[in-house]
Amino acid sequence: MILTGFLSICIFTFAGCKAEQKCTGNPRMYNGKMCASTTWYIDGRKGACGCGPANGDSQFEWNHSGFVAAASQNMFDYNPSKSWCGQMCGKCIKITSTGGFVPGQGGSVAAGQSHVFMVTNLCPNEYPNLSWCSQDRSNGYLNKYGYHAHFDLEDGAGQIRSIGWQHRNPEVTYEEVNCDQAHHQNSRTPSNGMYRQCQCGQRGNCKKKLTGK
Q: Which first-to-last residue range defines the signal peptide (predicted)?
């Protein structure tokens, strides 16, 4: 995906809904945890972590149908211009809905829904992602809606629709977790072994901490 251009984020507005963001502060936090905004996308390319056959740009099946995400540029790598094999490739994040969402940009889901996603792609700081993935030094590492991080969730096989998050773009908290443990609990979360199939996984890239800068 990232190799050929822009990452298109899918947005849906629920007209007439009264919404509120549960996360507060600068950066936004909820119950002592860092918050992130989310969107969803559908794409058939292997993405910025190379999770597809080396001789093409298609996805491995698990990168198409599993719980995988594109991270905002500040989370993807310390280098703001890096677009391939970022230090967050292959890292797993547990995201938990707060019950909130960005007014005018989605709809609420019940609080406390948790799912674990592996980062296999980049949401670059460029059009059309500037509202969500523009966190950098110039804006204090916050996007338009005040979030330090953004995760764009792959829905290639309807996995986001199946959990009721498609079109809703829920506000979430996030934390790093062990991929293999998460995979054991839910096979839709990729394992470390699956990530080692990726081009970046074979390069032994050093995974970064969840600091976002």
A: 1-19
